[in-house]
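This entry is set out below.
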Amino acid sequence: MGIVVDELAATQGTVLDIGCGNGKFLSRLHKDRPDLRVVCMDISEGILTDVGTVLVADAQTLPFAENEAEAVLALHMRSGPSRRPPRLV
């Protein structure tokens, strides 16, 4: 986790967390970087019940325009998409 926070040191604004899973990473990121707006997404709606506000979304068809976020994380994806997702940043 410390490595990710370090990598986001110069990042301001919105960070997308694709495949956020059970939200443990989100909780830690909010603690370490409360200034960031983190949007969590996962394709598995059932796992999201304890996370809070998240989007049910597929990494192949993200509901965001290009350059809408300053950083994109995909730390907990079990497998990669069959094709590359749209470039966001």
About this structure: The helical segments are 2-7, 24-32. The radius of gyration is 12 Å.
